[in-house]
């Protein structure tokens, strides 16, 4: 009996494509919607029908793709990171101040900035675990405090400071017809997926998110895991700050603001549960692409800003309803499966 | 009887978030008074102080209803800005116009609250995400209602509500009324008991026969209505409509609730705390101004006070748990 | 322990509340003492600077100009300047104005967040004799002084220049500012009025860049993907982002760009490489120098060197055509130069921080640091000011009935005839 059920479970996983689809329904749905939407944009604007436009979507999506990874990991362990906006700004301001328009200090500046944002992220985690401050309030406060410090550090505005050449090249130059940042994205997503879905660390995160008490009993170090999740979010913010500076050439103190709500939206649209324990990064990436393509489509149509905003809101609500419906279906399906399985068992007895 | 008054005070400080907030308020007020002089206690000075905090205070009351259930309502900001623009474009004047505005505020808040309640309690969406969606929807509609700042709020609202009756600011009376109504709702009705029960333990609440879905739905409607009222007060303050509400509004609302000692896990806290929390935010701004701290660093103080309030909150939980164990 | 527990919690709270009340009564006493001590200070003009929103180079340049002027003799002996950042929150700015009035302000110089939301507090302050000077953005409250370029017609003039460049034919995109903002509306209406006069001009797309280079760049990239062959882009602040988007679009050709005053776009206009790729345009827009002009006007009123002043004052529209860009060697605009080398300022820095006639006391360095130019003294302003048109919703309250609707007539360029 026992052996049988274990086999079945593994069998389900090893079923290849069909099995993958079965276990990642929401993710697949997100990608289907994204692709459909992309096809729509191709019909709306013929000039979108080229390689260049696809690359543009990726470049525009790259910032949100990276922030959302950290946000997603934090949400996975039942947290929420509202400090991403300030941390992105912090990273951008620091890197532009330390490495202005050259590549001189870049070797120490980039790691140092990443270290700082990771450290602040871990502070968030420490507050949320050891000090038992709800993540919502903890990250809200650090966000406000970090922004205040940046404001003081720059005395109101980053007057001097351009993007380091390296970052400029990273964001705008092409290699073999593909923007450099796209290579970086592929690498990033690859590593990110491995860490979240195929590593022991990642599995622990899922276990923690699904049931903290059970995770604790089974010997996981919950606090350490949560702190490192927040650390990852800080690290991602550091990366995005640099990417944004490379993209725009000069930091502004508001450059991180749009990413707080949109990163949460991307994670949610990507099918993760905001209560933690469920979801995967590929889904989030799909969510980001969906939102980005939607935004290009809206710009192409030239809608009034009011309508744009309404559509964005509606998409979030619709995505939520979709994923909750599909979740319910899978629950019902698995419940029926259990019943149908249990019936013959009892008959046997 | 061995416990001295001091010790009891200390205990109250740790266990009662609203009381802690009150003490913080008074301490900051003393600093403010010393640096500001007699203006701080003049009728005008006090009226200004109440006027500055009333909008966030009402918004924080709205938020408290949801946070007490362990949820989050991000739509407060959206409802406030939508109400504000609708009030600004309505053409009524005089007392009739003022009443119409009030109806708009309650109506808009109620409708959006119903949508939130439906999404969360019936469809079962996660509150933070669902209200993020409705909030964005509201701000989109606000931009369609009013394409640029403008419009007028009837003078009856704009002047009466920001004035003072004798030595008592109207805003203080409103704060008291809102506090009283929400306190009665939360503490004296089954509905309120249901909210607290839901926040403490959802399953237990369900098992004990509380109609959790209905309680949740009604809480969102109430939160919506209070948000609408916050929009109404904002219109009174500015006397005009503006389709752009600063991003910081929703953050300040949460900050007020946090400072007021409401537990973000749900089930613990009071609206009085949130109202005082909003007062602290407004007072803090004035105090830093009069002490002469560069406004670059306002955020450091805001953030620290929030963390302090939450730290004390979590500390008191630990202490009460230990006591329960011993 | 048991006894202690029996005591009702409410009684504990009540007693402590009483205690706290006593303490606060004591504090009130302290306050009156403190107030007396304060009156002893020596008399200087108390001026408050209220920034709406910090974080971009424009705002801090404007603030630095005012700070530098306040430290330039003889103002350094006469002025006590306090800077306050009010964020983008109307409520906060209302509260800050009230604090300033309460702290005995003689004058408040400010970038207002809302054209209408601050009117009441301004009226209250004006009644108490406080001078309100708004720079760049305006309010509709008649008791305030508005010093701004808005009515000078950025929209219609730049749009006409673009139409002239395009020969009256072709496709145009518009990069707007912040949605729901009256300045954006004024600029947009001005531009559209011109574009509508030329049937050959097609406005294919408009989007919002929020007066921010990063957002403008992202939105322009998206729009360019839909309309890669666009002939001209009419931009509000954020034109450097527009240019960056064009450079990244992969297309060799750069469309004509008309925009505001960032150093980046001016340098690009002067760059032969860019010119070869087709870049032409005009740089005209919101100058931070307005803040300095407003401050000096206010000081002249306070020191009674100026008897009366109209309330709506127009600052001339900065105007630098692509072939008139000239690099400055020093820190000031001299010999007609109008932009700075890339290693001296960020590309997003607005060049119009200087004015040879209105602000000879200010150098690039003072706009960057807020320190006065060594050896400079405040020079009196020219006697005459340009009165701005009272446009409804901009600097005039339509309820008062004295407003004049804007006429969108370009005067910086001669319109070309409509092609047949």
Structural commentary:
The complex is a heterotrimer of chains A (349), B (326) and C (420). Chain A has helices at 2-14, 17-23, 25-44, 51-76, 84-98, 106-129, 135-154, 165-172, 180-197, 200-210, 212-217, 222-248, 258-269, 281-301, 305-348, and strands at residues 174-175, 178-179. In chain A, a hairpin with a 2-residue loop joins strand 1 and strand 2 (178-179). In chain A, strands 1-2 form a two-stranded antiparallel sheet. In chain A, 78% of the residues lie in helices and 1% in strands. Chain A is globular and about 65 Å long. Chain B has one domain (49-290, 297-309): ABC transporter involved in vitamin B12 uptake, BtuC (Orthogonal Bundle), CATH 1.10.3470. Chain B has 14 helices and two strands; from the N terminus they run H-H-H-H-H-H-H-E-E-H-H-H-H-H-H-H. Chain B has helices at residues 5-15, 17-36, 43-68, 75-89, 94-122, 127-145, 155-160, 170-187, 190-200, 202-207, 212-238, 248-259, 271-291, 298-325, and strands spanning 164-165, 168-169. Chain B has a two-stranded antiparallel sheet with strand order 1-2. The mean pLDDT of chain B is 86. Chain C has two domains: 45-149 and 288-317 and 354-400, Rossmann fold, CATH 3.40.50; 153-283, Rossmann fold, CATH 3.40.50. In chain C, strands 2-1-3-4-5-11-13 form a seven-stranded mixed beta sheet, sandwiched between helices. The relative contact order of chain C is 0.14. The model of chain C is unreliable at 1-12 and 32-41 (pLDDT under 50). Chains in contact: A-B, A-C, B-C. The interface between A and C is large, with 37 and 48 residues.
Uncertain runs of chain C: 1-12, 32-41
Specify the structural class of chain A.
Answer: mainly alpha
Shape summary of chain C? globular
Count interface residues per chain for the largest interface. Answer: B-C, 63 and 57 residues
Mean pLDDT of chain A: 81
**Annotation field: number of helices of chain C:** 14
Q: Kindly report the oligomeric state of this protein.
A: heterotrimer
**Helix percentage range of chain A:** over 70%
Which term fits the overall shape of chain A?
globular
CATH superfamily of the largest domain in chain C: Response regulator
Compute the CA-based radius of gyration of chain C: 25 Å
Count of discrete domains of chain A: 2
Give the amount of beta strand of chain A, in percent: under 5%
Low-pLDDT windows of residues of chain A? 1-14, 341-349
């Amino acid at each position: 009996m026992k052996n049988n059920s274990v086999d079945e479970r593994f069998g389900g996983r090893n079923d290849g494509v069909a099995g993958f689809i079965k276990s990642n329904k929401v993710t697949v749905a997100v990608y289907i919607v994204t692709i459909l939407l992309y096809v729509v944009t191709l019909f709306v604007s013929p000039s979108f029908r080229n390689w260049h436009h696809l690359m543009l979507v990726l470049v525009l999506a790259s910032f949100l793709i990276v922030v959302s990874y950290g946000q997603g990991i934090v949400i996975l362990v039942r947290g929420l990171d509202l400090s991403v906006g300030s941390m992105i700004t912090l990273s951008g301001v620091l890197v532009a101040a330390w490495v202005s328009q050259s590549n001189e200090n870049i070797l120490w500046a980039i790691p140092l900035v990443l270290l700082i944002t990771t450290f602040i992220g871990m502070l968030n985690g420490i507050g949320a675990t050891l000090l038992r401050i709800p993540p919502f309030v903890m990250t809200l406060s650090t966000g406000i405090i970090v922004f205040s410090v940046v404001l003081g550090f720059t005395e109101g505005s980053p007057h001097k400071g351009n993007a380091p050449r390296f970052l400029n090249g990273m964001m705008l130059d092409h290699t073999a017809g593909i923007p450099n940042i796209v290579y970086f994205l592929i690498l990033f997503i690859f590593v990110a997926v491995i860490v979240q879905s195929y590593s022991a660390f990642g599995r622990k995160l899922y276990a923690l998110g699904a049931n903290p008490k059970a995770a604790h009993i089974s010997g996981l170090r919950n606090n350490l895991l949560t702190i490192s999740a927040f650390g990852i979010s800080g690290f991602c913010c550091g990366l995005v700050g640099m990417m944004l500076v490379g993209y725009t050439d000069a930091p502004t103190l508001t450059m991180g603001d749009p990413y707080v709500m949109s990163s949460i939206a991307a994670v949610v649209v990507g099918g993760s549960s905001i209560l933690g324990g469920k979801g995967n990064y590929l889904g989030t990436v799909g969510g980001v692409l969906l939102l980005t393509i939607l935004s290009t489509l809206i710009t192409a149509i030239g809608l009034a800003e009011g309508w744009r905003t309404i559509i964005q809101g509606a998409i979030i609500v619709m995505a939520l309803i979709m994923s909750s419906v599909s979740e319910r279906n899978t629950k019902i399906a698995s419940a029926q499966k259990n019943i149908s399985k249990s019936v013959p068992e009892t008959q046997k007895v | 009887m061995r416990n001295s008054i001091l010790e009891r005070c200390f205990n109250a400080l740790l266990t009662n978030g609203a009381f802690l907030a009150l003490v913080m308020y008074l301490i900051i007020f003393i600093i403010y008074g010393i640096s500001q002089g007699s203006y701080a206690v003049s009728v005008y000075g006090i009226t200004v102080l109440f006027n500055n905090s009333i909008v966030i205070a009402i918004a924080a009351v709205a938020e408290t209803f949801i946070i007490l259930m362990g949820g989050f309502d991000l739509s407060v900001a959206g409802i406030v800005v939508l109400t504000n623009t609708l009030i600004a474009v309505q053409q009524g004047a005089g007392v009739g116009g003022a009443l119409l505005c009030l109806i708009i505020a309650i109506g808009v808040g109620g409708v959006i609250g119903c949508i939130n309640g439906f999404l969360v309690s019936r469809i079962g969406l996660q509150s933070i995400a669902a209200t993020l969606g409705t909030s964005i929807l509201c701000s989109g509609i606000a931009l369609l209602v009013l394409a640029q700042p403008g419009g007028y709020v009837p003078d009856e609202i704009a002047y009466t509500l920001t004035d003072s009756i004798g030595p008592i600011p109207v805003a203080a009376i409103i704060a008291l009324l809102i506090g009283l109504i929400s306190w009665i709702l939360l503490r004296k009705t089954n509905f309120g008991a249901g909210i607290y029960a839901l926040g403490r333990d959802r399953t237990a609440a369900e098992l004990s026969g509380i109609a959790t879905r209905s309680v949740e739905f009604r809480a969102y409607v109430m939160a919506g209505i209070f948000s609408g009222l916050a929009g109404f007060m904002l219109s009174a303050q500015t006397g005009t409509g503006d389709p752009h509400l600063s991003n910081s509004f929703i953050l300040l609302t949460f900050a007020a609730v946090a400072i007021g000692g409401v537990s973000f896990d749900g089930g613990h806290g009071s609206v009085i705390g949130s109202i005082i929390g909003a007062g602290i935010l407004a007072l803090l701004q004035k105090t830093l101004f009069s002490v002469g701290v560069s406004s670059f660093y306002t955020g450091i103080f805001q953030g620290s006070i929030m963390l302090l309030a939450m730290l004390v909150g979590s500390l008191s939980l630990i202490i009460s748990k230990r006591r329960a164990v011993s | 322990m048991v006894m202690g527990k029996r005591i009702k919690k409410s009684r504990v709270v009540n007693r402590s509340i009483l205690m706290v009340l006593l303490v606060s009564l004591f504090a009130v006493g302290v306050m009156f003492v403190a107030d007396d001590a304060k009156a002893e200070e020596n008399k200087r003009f108390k001026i408050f600077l209220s920034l709406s929103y910090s974080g971009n180079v424009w705002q801090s340049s404007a603030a630095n100009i005012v700070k530098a002027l306040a430290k330039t003799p003889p103002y350094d002996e006469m002025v006590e300047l306090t800077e306050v950042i009010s964020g983008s929150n109307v409520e906060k700015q209302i509260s800050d104005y009230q604090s300033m009035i309460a702290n005995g302000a003689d004058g408040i110089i400010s970038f207002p967040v809302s054209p209408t939301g601050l009117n009441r507090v301004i009226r209250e302050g004006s009644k108490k004799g406080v001078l309100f000077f708004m720079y760049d953005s305006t309010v509709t409250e008649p008791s305030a002084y508005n010093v701004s370029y808005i009515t000078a017609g950025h929209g219609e003039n730049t749009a006409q220049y673009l139409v002239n460049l395009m020969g009256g034919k072709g496709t145009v995109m518009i990069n707007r500012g912040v949605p729901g903002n009256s300045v954006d509306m004024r600029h947009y209406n001005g531009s559209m009025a011109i574009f509508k006069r030329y049937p050959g001009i097609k406005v294919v797309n408009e989007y919002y860049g929020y007066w921010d280079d990063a957002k403008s760049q992202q939105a322009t990239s998206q729009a360019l993907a839909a309309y890669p062959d666009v002939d001209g882009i009419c931009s509000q602040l954020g034109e450097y982002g527009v240019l960056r988007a064009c450079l990244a679009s992969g297309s060799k050709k750069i469309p004509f760009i008309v925009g505001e005053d960032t150093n980046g776009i001016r340098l690009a206009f002067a760059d032969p490489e860019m010119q070869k790729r087709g870049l032409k345009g005009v740089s005209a827009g919101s100058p931070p120098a307005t803040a300095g002009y407003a401050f000096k006007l206010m000081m002249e009123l306070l020191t009674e060197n100026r008897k009366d002043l109209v309330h709506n004052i127009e600052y001339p529209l900065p105007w630098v055509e692509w072939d008139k860009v000239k690099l400055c060697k020093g820190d000031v605009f001299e010999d007609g130069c109008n932009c700075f080398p890339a290693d001296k300022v960020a590309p997003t820095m607005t060049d119009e921080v200087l004015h040879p006639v209105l602000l000879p006391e200010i150098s690039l360095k003072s706009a960057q640091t807020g320190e006065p130019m060594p050896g400079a003294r405040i020079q009196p302003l020219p006697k005459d000011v340009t009165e701005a048109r009272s446009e409804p919703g901009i600097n005039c309250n339509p309820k008062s009935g004295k407003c004049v609707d804007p006429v969108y007539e370009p005067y910086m360029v001669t319109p070309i005839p409509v092609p047949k």
